[in-house]
UniProtKB/TrEMBL annotation:
Subcellular location, principal: membrane
Protein name: Nitrate ABC transporter, permease protein
Pfam families: BPD_transp_1
Protein location: Cell inner membrane; Cell membrane
Protein species of origin: Marinobacter excellens HL-55
CDD domains given in the database record: TM_PBP2
PROSITE patterns: ABC_TM1 (PS50928)
Domain ABC transmembrane type-1: 85-265
Lineage: Bacteria, Pseudomonadati, Pseudomonadota, Gammaproteobacteria, Pseudomonadales
Family recorded in the similarity comment: Belongs to the binding-protein-dependent transport system permease family.
Topological category with respect to the lipid bilayer: Multi-pass membrane protein
SUPFAM superfamilies hit by this protein: MetI-like
GO biological process, one term: monoatomic ion transport
Length: 276
């Protein structure tokens, strides 16, 4: 097992070096001809000749500079990458925790009661396919606050995977375990906490992992719409400045943070699976 992991890690590193080498070589050799503008640049009214996809070496230099002081704040349009990520993570976790507070109890209710499942399922099936960003105009009108509207959108997109996975996990708990709890005259709440919750926990955490991934995707798009602060706004602002090194660096940071969020819930899922 260990040797396989080491070989996989080495192979992954080889792929990375090869990819970066091709990228670096391509940006140095296949460069735009001086004095020529692309069709897009002509439509934009001309562009700086240096506005091009930067090589990896330039992005690495930019990353070192940004990460050396990630939390600076020099005004509304000049904040460090750490500050921007902190705003986005705060919004994601706030909306995610709000969704969890609603989805878990409601999922238990739906999973334990066929009557409630049949009564609520039509509403779930209508609301679930709606794009989270479609709620943004209504949220902005009703809430009249861009940050709270972004949190509401995260709440909406996070609730459905957790709700459905919780209901599925609860409904599929082995019936003989529930019967044993009834034999011991446990109350419905105690049965839910001591018997059903541990059995359904891996499925519930799967829904939570799906939800946090969707939430992190959506917050970037939401912040591009509402502006102000956050990693989505940072990407859009740097694009407007034609600073492609910052754009690519921020895209990589989005991926890293998303991976860390998923890893955290993945570790929790392995713990409950082990204890099960």
């Amino acid at each position: 097992m260990a040797s396989t992991s080491v070989r996989a890690g080495m192979l992954s590193l080889v792929f990375l070096v090869l990819f970066l080498g091709i990228w670096e070589f391509g940006t140095q050799v296949i460069a735009p001809q001086q004095g020529e503008l692309s069709e897009y640049e002509l439509l934009m009214g001309g562009a700086d000749q240096e506005a091009r996809v930067p090589p990896p070496s330039e992005i690495i230099r930019h990353a070192v500079a940004e990460l050396s002081d990630p939390f600076y704040d020099r005004g509304s349009n000049d904040k460090g990458i750490g500050t921007q990520l902190a705003y986005s993570i705060y919004r994601v976790l706030t909306g995610f925790l709000g969704a969890m507070a609603v989805a878990l109890p409601l999922g238990f209710l739906i999973g334990m009661s066929p009557l409630m499942y049949k009564a609520l399922n039509p509403y779930i099936q209508v609301l679930r396919p709606i794009s989270p960003l479609a709620w943004m105009p209504l949220a902005l009108f009703v809430i009249q606050d861009s940050e709270q509207s972004a949190i509401f959108v995260i709440f909406i997109c996070s609730i459905w995977p957790m709700l459905l996975n919780t209901a599925f996990g609860v409904a599929n708990v082995r019936q003989d375990w529930v019967n044993v709890a009834r034999t011991h005259e446990l109350s419905p709440i105690k049965t839910a906490v001591t018997v059903i919750l541990p059995a359904a926990a891996p499925t519930i955490l799967t829904g939570m992992r799906i939800s946090i991934g969707i939430a992190w995707l959506v917050i970037v798009a939401a912040e591009m719409l509402v502006g102000g602060t956050g990693i989505g706004y940072y990407v859009w602002n740097e694009w407007n400045n034609l600073d492609l090194a910052s754009v690519i660096f921020s895209i990589l940071m989005i991926g890293v943070v998303g991976m860390l969020l998923d890893l955290a819930l993945g570790k929790a899922q392995k713990l409950v699976e082990y204890k099960e």
